[in-house]
Amino acid sequence: MRDVRKDKNFLYTQSSIVTFMQCPLKFRYRYFDGLYGSDDETLKGSFEKGNKFHLLAERYFKEIDTDVNYIKEKELKELFEKLKEKYPIEANCRYFSEYEIRENAEKIRLMARYDLIILKPNGRVQIVDFKTNKRKISKKSIEESLQTKIYLYLLKENYKSVFENIRKIKNIEMIYYQTEYSEENFTVKYDDELHEKNKSFLSETIENIEVFNFDEYEKKEVNHCKVCEFKNFCWKNKKSVDDTLYL
After folding, report:
1. From the centroid of its chain, how far is CA 220?
2. Where would I find the PD-(D/E)XK endonuclease-like domain in this sequence (predicted)?
């Protein structure tokens, strides 16, 4: 078993931090033991649809020829056309599609891959994240989400390495674009005060993971256990919370 926390080149992501928050054991299975897997065909279908949409969006914003006549799925074609109507390519903007930002500092080691970053005139910046599932999101949930904190923090903290010859950015915001509800999207504004709060939160969160003692962790059954990909071997007896792990 390899403790990835001791690898200084290991960067935390939204996914890895959420996994730890859901259950430290799930974090250990996935990132120490390298275990993955899900038998949920519904989820697989949803992921496939999302991947296709993201690929089309990437080609569009990188101005790679994307002929909608080659898209077989009618629903996917309609979603893509709505995206182009919402975000037409503008000559005075710069588009960074599927763009990765990394930070490997002493207290914050993070990485995020952005669906889209738009640099507008006068240093205005938009982060656009595409949500392709059918479940509606709420403004409160996205304002408090870990993804919002990470994406806004990383971009503001590292914008000089992203944008050449840009001394300062302003009016930075993050937009959640719901493909199924394209007229019901939410925007989170960002400022220096919120940035400092996010920096403290992320630093503390990562430190808590770094010092966590897995050997002394008392296994607990939580709601997430019911949908966890490791549920079939994590508990010998689901009625008991004192059983020994299969390692």
Report:
1. 26
2. 13-234
